[in-house]
Structures are given as structure tokens and as C-alpha cells.
Design a protein that fits this description.
The structure is a homodimer. Chain A is of the alpha/beta class. Chain A has 3 domains: about 70 residues, lambda repressor-like DNA-binding domains (434 Repressor (Amino-terminal Domain), Orthogonal Bundle), CATH 1.10.260; about 130 residues, Response regulator (Rossmann fold, 3-Layer(aba) Sandwich); about 140 residues, Rossmann fold. Chain A contains 12 helices and 12 strands. The longest helix of chain A has 17 residues. Chain A starts with 5 loop residues before the first helix and ends in a 10-residue tail after the last strand. The N terminus of chain A is likely disordered. Chains A and B meet through α5, α6, β2, α7 and α11 of A and α5, α6, β2, α7 and α11 of B. β2 of chain A pairs antiparallel with β2 of chain B.
Chain lengths: ~350, ~350
DNA sequence: CTGTTAGCGCCTTCAG
DNA sequence: CTGAAGGCGCTAACAG
């Protein structure tokens, strides 16, 4: 035992200049090669599972590597192999349940595929976004990018990503494969559902004006209302509880109350619900309420919230699968896909089973 | 303009063997050097802000680099400099608001410090945890590790991390710097608050038995009750709404109802609240309710939830700051720190201002 | 099957 | 102040 590791032990003890890591020196492929009496090439082959290595040699190499606790240096490996085994994820933010769920879906697939995740958020700032994208170069094999801002100037237009990428909830652009939640059809369906339940004055609490999904949902609401004779009634919102709460109060104070309120997402619907609760207005008896997303809390509030279910984790998972396919075969046809959403009827609209 | 980029343009057009990345070739330091009529060494120095470069030369180099959209290749840089500019974040999971908030805090500091984040979750599986830690070697300069499972065998004991690391909400072990939410004192404070508000039969909805924080909160509850004459009354829970809901129902059905319920976290408190709502039991009139965490919804439910505020984003931010200090100076003394929590009194305990 | 060798792109002495 | 040159650790031809 001792004899085998003498060389390395000596190096460990008398490392001339301790390279970082708290004075530790790391074991390289050379150390393994020397201990196993083979060349570095053979070690590389053995460790990477190539076929052209004699069984006994492979065995010996693996043992030595294990004993020395060798672990290949990632930077070196990816510098020479030109692959990083890492996927870059660039998001507008990391805050809230949406991103959390998204990451969960992405993470599951990444783990399954043995890929690492380099995450970065740009806080809605186009400059930071550019910087984040640039910084990904040489660190990742592909990119998952979410850029939901419907700015006049497409921040991606000028960015040569220089690598395969998939767009998430960002519309379709730059000839990249894209995957979007089908917000438009979802919102239209919900609006029609409310109409068919007998509501005619349906108010809509919108999302941020520069957000792609918010835009699609508003469009779906308007189109859903189109032939009904009902006029659109839109309040501003921000996708958070606070703005839903504010919108709820505003609705109560308006001269003519709506029959139903459709919030562009569940968090706003909940904020609105609490505003109604505080004012003693009963849901659904006096006003019906609907949301969008089906967050976990939607089923626990009282009354249960009617909403559109969006499987966000599936969104992330599917996006990464698309990217992996692109990575495996760059000629995979590029398409824009939609993630289906589903109407979930609960008590908040007054037409639900108990 | 054209003349300057002729060389590179030619290369881009007639790259002999397109090296990965969908057939694109990337611009290297050599390209910049050639365009700027200097050596690669000078480019390197100029771009890295070293002082020994003539102002006009630096200017020219920066211009060329900008025009060519040059961005250094990470793997190459970290191979030669032995630093990755990346922090590894190893978490038990990526699911839910807690991790989302944690990541937000970490991300803010990382961005501020120009560091990237390599995230990985191990789904509560010790083997996966080991694999994740091993895979971090050579890819990151330091580690933020959350390992809240109070298993008999410390999964970290055998792991030579081989690099600076900070433990998050994982107790104190392995001689690593640690940062923990002060769950014990928080729970004790809350329990005493409930007692002093006149409640004597206080039930506690516990968290997962193998979770460090859950354990600390339970301990705080017991100690808070210690000299009061009240007996502990503990129900199992899982930190999610569903288990809080179940516990709430169980409490209602028990022969002797409690005066107050203290849930080990807000999600369970909300689940419990909805169970009470459904049963028509009024909070706080019939039963007082308290939680722990102060998630955003806590202030929007009706009645507002009395809870202990935990600044999770601050937890992440502080942990990364500690790690950065460790990275900057390995001799920084190692200590276990506590993140203070604060009592937030709302209406759910019946002693609050409206 | 195995060893030798030439880079991958960048940083960093060491001479000028 | 600047250029030339030697690696960093690993992979991938190319010869044996």
C-alpha cells in the first residue's frame, strides 16, 4: 500500500508551490499513469470507457485512480474536448415559485443526462443579459434562455449566441427553437368558461405590460370576450399578490361591480381574494374569481380557485430535452412548440362540484 | 471597418474544420492580437486590466476586442489561472419558495462579485450528494453546501471537499464555517409569546423528523413550554400545506381542542388555517395560530398570520459572503454563525393591532 | 492494444 | 512597456 503511493505522497508533502485550494496539490492524470505504469493516453482511455484497453490494464488503472482519489480536471478536459457537459440557464430572475418550478424540471432532466447547470439571471436588464450570454461562452455546451420582455428592440437580435439554444416563454425569434406556455388559448378558454357560466361583466387583472405571457393572456381574454357582447374591463397588475390585492380593492370601490374577475395569474387572484375577504364580499356568491397557473395554494384557499393548470416543471424539462436533441444532432428541425394548459374548475366560480 | 476584420471574416467563412458549436468558430485571443498588431501577451494584459500596458495600446486592444465580440474562453482561462470564478451550490432540492429565495440571495452576491453559480441538487440522496460534491471538483472555487439531514452517519465526514466551503442550515460539522437560521430561539420566543398571550394548551405541528431546522424548532417549542406547566402536544408534519391541513383536521377532531396552534413553518400554518376555515372554526377567536418563516402570503391571508420572520435571501447572501472571505483569505477564522429571526405579530393570535 | 505527440486558449514568467 | 515561450491537464490523432 505504502509503496504504491510513494511518489504522489512525496509530491503532496513537498509541493514546491502550492497551487490554490488551501495549499493542496491536485492529482493529475500523470500521477495515475506513473502509478499504473502506463501512459496518460491509456489512463484517459480507460477512465473514459473506451473499448481499446486491455481488461487487466483497465482494471489496474481504475484501481489506482480510485486509490489516489483522482478526479479529472474539468477545465482541462473541456478545453481539449471542446465540450463542457454543462448547460447554461439564463433567466430574467430567480425569484418566486415560477422559476423554482422551472428549475426543478430542468434539473431533473439535467441530472438524468449527467449534465451540470450554470445559472444566471439578468434582472430584466438587457445589458446584463448580454453580459450573461457572453460569459457563457466556453462554459456551456448549450443554452436555455428566457427573455419574456417584449421590448421594441430584440435583445437577442445582435447576440450571436454561438451555440445551440432553446427559447423559453419568449415568443419565437432569431430562428431558435422555442417552447411557450399556451397562454393565449388558456386565457381564451377561461374567459369563455366564465361567460358560459353566466357571467357577463368580467374584469381582467393584467400582468406586466412588457411580459410576453401577460400579453398573450390579455389577448386571449379579449378574443374570448369578442362575440359575447361583453366589453373588456382591464385593470393593471404585476403578477404579484400586492397588485392583485390593489386591483381587488379598486374593483370593490368602482361604481358597478363585475360578476367575475379573471386574474392573469394565481398570485394576483389570491391577492384579490384576500381583498374580497377583508371587505366581506363572498366568493363566488357575489363575485366569481379565476386565476392562471394552478399554483399549489390554489387548491387550499377557501374557496378553491378555478384556474388554468400550467405544468411549469414540464416546461423546463421539455425545453432541456429539446436542447439535448439539438446538441445530439444539430440538424434536428427547429420548431416553436406550445405547452398545453388545462382548465381546473374549483369552487371560486360558483359552478363547481363541492 | 471592413479592412479591420478581414482576417477574421475570412476565417469565419472558410473555417477548415468547424469545431463544434454548430459549425461556428469562436474568436480567440490570437485573433484580437493579430487585428491589434500586438502579441497575445499584451492582449491578455490589456484585457485583464494590468498596469503595464501603454494607454494607446490598451485602447486599441479594447476596441478590437469589442468589435470582434471577443470573449475569453473560460476553460482555457481557468486551466492556466487555476481559478474558475464559479461557486458551486449543492442543495437537497430546488423545489419551493425556500430554495428560490435562497438562490436569489446567493445570486445577488455572486453577480456583485462577478461569480457564476453552478447548482446541483441531490434529492435527499446521500449517494447523489457525494456524486454532486465530487463533480464539483475542478469546476468551482468554493462550495455552498446545504445538508439538513440529521442522519446518524454524517455524509460529509468522508468527503474531502478539497476546497473552501460554507455549510448552510446543516448544523456545525467537519470544522467548516456554518450559517444557520436561529430556529431554536425563534421557536422558543414564539412559544413564550403564545403563553404570555394567555394560551396554555399549545399544539405544535412539527416538520420532517430528519430535518435540522425542524428539529431545532421542536426543541425551541419544548424549551419554551418548559416552566409553564403546559404539556407539549406535538403533531407530525412535513413542511407542506397538505400536512398542515391534515394536522388541522386532526386537531379539530381531537376531544380536547388546543387554545393555540404553532406550526413549524408557514406553509403548514396556512394548510391548518384552511382546515379551520373549512370547518367554520374562527381564528383567532376559537383557536390562535402561529407559523414560522414569514412567507409573503402570511400577510395576505385573513387573518394575517403571526410568525417568525426569516430572511432567507439574507441567509444565502451572507453564506456566500462568508465563502468569499474564505476564498480571499484562507486564514479567515472559521465560525458557526446564526441568522437572527424576528417575531411578527399579526391578527392570527388575537393580541395584535388591527 | 499502447505510447508519443500535438495542440485546446490563455496566463505568466523571463528577456529584451 | 512588449514579445516570445513554456506550461496548465487532458484528449485525440497518429504511429507502432
Amino acid at each position: 500500500m505504502q509503496e504504491f503511493c510513494s511518489d504522489v505522497c512525496k509530491r503532496l508533502q513537498s509541493a514546491p508551490s502550492a497551487p490554490s485550494f488551501g495549499g493542496r496539490v491536485s492529482i493529475t492524470i500523470k500521477d495515475v499513469a506513473r502509478e499504473a505504469n502506463v501512459s496518460v493516453a491509456t489512463v484517459s482511455r480507460a477512465l473514459n470507457g473506451h473499448e481499446n484497453v486491455a481488461p487487466d490494464v483497465r482494471q489496474r488503472v481504475l484501481e489506482v485512480a480510485d486509490r489516489l482519489q483522482y478526479s479529472p480536471h474539468h477545465a482541462a478536459r473541456s478545453l481539449s474536448s471542446r465540450r463542457t457537459q454543462t448547460i447554461g440557464v439564463v433567466l430574467p430572475d430567480l425569484y418566486g415559485e415560477f422559476f423554482s418550478e422551472l428549475m426543478r424540471g430542468i434539473d431533473a432532466v439535467a441530472r438524468e443526462a449527467g449534465r451540470h447547470l450554470l445559472v444566471s439571471s439578468y434582472h430584466g436588464n438587457p445589458d446584463e443579459q448580454g453580459a450573461a450570454l457572453r460569459a457563457m461562452r466556453g462554459r456551456v455546451d448549450g443554452l436555455l434562455l428566457m427573455s419574456p420582455f417584449v421590448a421594441d428592440a430584440d435583445p437577442l437580435a445582435g447576440q450571436a449566441l454561438g451555440m445551440p439554444a432553446v427559447l423559453l416563454n419568449s415568443g419565437a425569434r432569431a430562428g431558435l427553437p422555442a417552447l411557450n406556455v399556451d397562454s393565449y388559448h388558456g386565457a381564451r378558454t377561461m374567459t369563455r368558461h366564465l361567460l358560459s357560466a353566466g357571467h357577463s361583466r368580467i374584469a381582467f387583472i393584467a400582468g406586466p405590460t412588457d411580459n410576453f405571457d401577460a400579453h398573450e393572456r390579455l389577448r386571449g381574454y379579449r378574443d374570448g370576450l369578442a362575440d359575447s357582447g361583453s366589453a373588456p374591463w382591464v385593470l393593471p397588475g404585476d403578477f404579484d399578490e400586492a397588485s392583485g390585492h390593489a386591483a381587488g380593492r379598486e374593483l370593490l370601490e368602482s361604481g358597478e361591480r363585475p360578476d367575475a374577475v379573471f386574474a392573469a395569474n394565481d398570485m394576483m387572484a389570491l391577492g384579490c381574494l384576500f381583498a374580497f375577504n377583508q371587505a366581506g364580499v363572498r366568493v363566488p356568491h357575489e363575485i366569481a374569481l379565476a386565476g392562471f397557473d394552478d399554483i399549489p395554494l390554489a387548491r387550499y384557499v377557501h374557496p378553491g380557485l378555478t384556474t388554468m393548470r400550467v405544468d411549469i416543471a414540464a416546461l423546463g424539462a421539455r425545453a432541456l430535452r429539446t436542447l439535448m436533441a439539438q446538441l445530439a444532432d444539430p440538424d434536428t428541425p427547429v420548431a416553436a412548440e406550445r405547452l398545453e394548459v388545462a382548465l381546473v374548475v374549483r369552487q371560486s366560480c360558483g359552478v363547481a362540484p363541492v
